[in-house]
Design goal:
12 strands; 11 helices; alpha/beta; two-stranded parallel ribbon; Rossmann fold; 272 residues; single chain; 38% helix; six-stranded parallel β-sheet
Length: 272
């Protein structure tokens, strides 16, 4: 039986990708936040899940205010219904480090990450077992210009620099990544298993920036200048994804990411 899922964020990067992926096996209603808030409860209660993929600039940039918290408003609207919610949180709620687990020290430093952590705590209190929180690492995927962007993706910055003929040389810098197609596959699997709680979503490995840049630049035929990056500016981290992988049991490797990035490179540079 197909799950009925509301995806909020028609023009968001993750909302558009999730809608396209999930509709293959589920019934998807893709709407914007204001439309959802106006929907009657009797209509929303016909659905199994709601996934919020949208936010606003005030929530991202400023100190926490309830009026800017879309996730909180959604949770309060559905708290008496049977529908479950998926919140897209951030790995930035943790202190930087290696092998960060869901139980690791939480130390958000930006307004955005502090706000995400406050939202997490509020939603766990409101929805109890009806909330699935995903702490997501850096997502790799093409961000179509027609979609709203509150954040620049890693690939956005990469391609902006490439157009200027520049690649930053990050010899010792690394992060944890996941391709958007794998992220969508993971979300679908978690939905099918009716999972709740908090999960890290990542590859769970060190991906050195010099590696991922070389993958994304694979099909670029133009000469580029390599500029050294100040290492103290690096934001090195890896997430421990054991809890996730033990639950969903699907393939999720750095080799998959490499193949995906090289495929993206071909698309990025086909007309360059």
């Amino acid at each position: 039986m197909k799950n009925k899922i509301i995806v909020i964020g028609r023009k968001s990067f993750l909302g558009s990708n999730l809608s396209l992926y999930l509709k293959k096996k589920n019934f998807i209603l893709n709407i914007d936040y204001k439309t959802f808030i106006k929907k009657k409860l009797i209509f929303i209660d016909n659905f199994d899940y709601v996934i919020n993929c949208t936010s606003n600039q005030s929530y991202v940039e400023n100190k926490y205010l309830k009026k800017n918290d879309f996730d909180l408003a959604i949770a309060n609207k559905i708290k008496k219904l049977n529908i479950k919610m998926i919140m897209l949180s951030s790995r930035k709620v943790y202190k930087n480090g290696i092998n960060l687990k869901e139980t690791s020290l939480l130390n958000p430093t930006s307004n955005y990450s502090k706000n995400k952590l406050k939202t997490e705590k509020a939603l766990l209190g409101i929805l109890k077992e009806k909330i699935l929180i995903l702490r997501i690492s850096n997502i790799i995927g093409l961000n179509n210009k027609k979609y709203n962007k509150l954040h620049k993706l890693f690939i956005d910055v990469f391609f902006e620099n490439i157009k200027r003929g520049i690649i930053f040389n990050n010899k010792n810098s690394y992060k944890d990544f996941i391709q958007v197609t794998k992220f969508c596959e993971i979300v679908e699997k978690l939905i099918s298993l009716k999972v709740d709680g908090i999960y890290n979503v990542s590859i769970g490995k060190k991906i050195f920036l010099k590696e991922i840049v070389s993958w994304l630049n694979f099909y670029n035929k133009k000469n580029v200048r390599y500029l050294n990056l100040n290492e103290h500016l690096s934001d090195n981290f890896t997430l421990n994804n054991d809890k996730l992988m033990n639950t969903i049991k699907i393939k999720n490797t750095s080799q998959d990411l490499k193949k995906y990035c090289i495929k993206l490179s071909k698309k990025l540079f086909k007309n360059v």
